[in-house]
Amino acid sequence: MFPRPQHLVAMLLAALVAARAPAAEVRPVACVPVESEGSPRAAAPPGPLDTALAEACAAALDRVRADPALARHLRRAYAGFLAGREAVLARPEARLPVYLRTGRQWFDALDGPRAGWAGAWISGAGDIVVAPRPDGSFTVRARADDPVGGSYTCGFVGVGRLAGEVMEVAWDTAEDEDEDDGADGWTLVLRRDGGLLTLAQRRNASPAPTAPFCGVHGSLEETYLPARVVPDPVTAWEPASGAGPGRR
User: Is the pTM of this model over 0.70?
Assistant: First the structure.
């Protein structure tokens, strides 16, 4: 849950995660397989896994068509995955099949438009799970990882309370073995934006220069889409125990 000390500077995140890239930088695209021209690794032309990713995107698009903003963001997410494919090819130690398989699972997990806060929400780099509590508050669990560079991990478990049209989330000391504020005073602010959920990090009066619940340059700030389940993290690494940064 807490940042691993070996994490380095985040690389290529803006290109990898469409939810965090402005529309002017990553434009929505149709769910079609990536083109082979310009690929930096000639040994990795488009193949069946690329087709499967495009088909999963198209199926997800059918589920969200009732919400134009959600559909537009999904297509932008697909453009981000295609940009991430090129980032993977630029790193010889990364594994394109792993990235494409986990990307396909990500699109398979997407759900249609949703009312309310409860449930799973996902971005290209992480997820949020919101669960109601008996007292009217919510348990909020948020995490994120750098899909390609393995440069950071973020983890936040908090208690969310509605304040007008937003949900303010404070660190849950009951989940902390030391009963301490592991976020060092930082809080999260969740906001519904049509069929989407946006997350902002609030420093408050914390002296910490960066979010203490993330690795170097990591962030939970994203736009998240509704999901039926939380998929395995999108990654370009083969599962391996005791491996280097980014490996699981």
Answer: yes
